[in-house]
């Protein structure tokens, strides 16, 4: 098998807001293209020797009502190379994480209430622990908390080679600019992701002000994903 660079990531659920999200950073380019997946029923990440179908199928099954652990276990059981995979995620009724025995060290995961964290080829276990603890203590909405978690993991050592890309992906009843953000190549992708999140929020506020000034007090649903480009 071809060697695949390592990653650390988090998947989470906010049951009160009915929101699922995932965030990830890695030492290669464009991690947001293949690793994080979300739906109305779940959030999942596939990494190490990434198999995109595992993430895509897990959240689709979760949206259809299957438990996320049952979905992942079925997918891994049918995978001849499961020992090389690292997958994790959350659904409406539980969490799941798996680190195959052939993942590159350091590799491991942590499962909490409504979130999972996993990483491979990391500086050490402290990266996963810091990511989880930061998510638990962070303020803000799902996007803010996920980026805060990545920042803490990076500060704890992050990917053993340094990071090159990062992404945050959120599924919520009301979509926003900042629910699908990617930094595909950067010397400081997590920091740039934080800046991109702030800029996306600023852009939404600006559109709101400009639209209200021109047309009056329009309802928020008119501006879903910033209809006024």
UniProtKB/TrEMBL annotation:
Q: What is this protein called?
A: DUF1028 domain-containing protein
Superkingdom to which the source organism belongs: Archaea
Q: Record's InterPro entries? A: DUF1028, Ntn_hydrolases_N
Q: Which PANTHER family did the record assign?
A: BLL2871 PROTEIN
């Amino acid at each position: 098998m071809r060697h695949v660079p390592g990653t650390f990531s988090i998947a989470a659920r906010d049951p009160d807001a009915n929101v699922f999200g995932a965030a990830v950073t890695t030492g290669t380019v464009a991690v947001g293209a293949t690793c994080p997946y979300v739906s109305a029923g779940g959030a999942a990440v596939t990494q190490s020797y990434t198999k995109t179908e595992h993430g895509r199928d897990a959240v689709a099954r979760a949206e259809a009502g299957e438990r996320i652990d049952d979905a992942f276990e079925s997918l891994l059981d049918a995978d001849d190379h499961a020992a090389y995979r690292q997958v994790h995620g959350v659904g409406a009724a539980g969490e799941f994480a798996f680190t195959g025995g052939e993942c590159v060290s350091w590799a491991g995961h942590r499962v909490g209430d409504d979130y999972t964290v996993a990483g491979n080829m990391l500086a050490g276990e402290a990266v996963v622990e810091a990511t989880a603890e930061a998510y638990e203590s962070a303020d803000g909405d799902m996007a803010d908390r996920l980026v805060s978690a990545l920042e803490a993991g990076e500060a704890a050592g992050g990917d053993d080679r340094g990071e090159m890309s990062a992404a945050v992906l959120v599924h919520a009843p009301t979509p926003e600019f900042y629910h699908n953000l990617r930094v595909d190549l950067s010397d400081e992708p997590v920091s740039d992701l934080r800046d991109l999140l702030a800029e996306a929020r600023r852009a939404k506020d600006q559109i709101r002000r400009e639209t209200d000034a021109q047309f009056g007090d329009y309802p928020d649903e008119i501006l879903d994903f910033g209809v006024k480009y």
